[in-house]
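Example (one chain per record):
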Amino acid sequence: MKRRITSGIITMVLLICMVFMTACGKNDTAGGGKKIEGDLQDVMAKIYEGVDLDDETKQAMQNYVCDTLTADSEQALLGVEGVPYTEGVYSVPMISSIAYQCVLLRVDPADVDTVKEMLKENADVNKWVCVSAETVLVENVGDVVLFIMSDQAAAYAVSASFQALAQ
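Predicted structure:
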């Protein structure tokens, strides 16, 4: 009898833990309640200011073209048309032999997972003429989605700077 009670208590504790872990996992997908405020061009500038890379690369990034994403540039930058977003900006080198692009999208919170999946499925690391991106990252903080294709060091440095902006 004692063994059944103990077993029942352990089962209940494990069940409660699983419920909390599932709930926490859902919050992580939506940014864990954190968010990034402000105009996305300003956010991109802050990401580049905080990026932990050598000074030459950091300076180059701050000089990349940063512009508003339009319906005309969606296919080239996102790999697909029809991604639901309310605000979008991108950053790319003007002329370079480096495979790099960084896109920020502000989306409806209900669309975050859908947008991330669309971007992952349609990322074309070979879209540049003579070079390929070695890393694709698609992440979010709240309703802001980061989509970056580049070399591994730059991608993870930009991602870390992006995550650090979460409030």
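Caption: Strands lie at 65-68, 87-92, 101-106, 135-141, 144-150.
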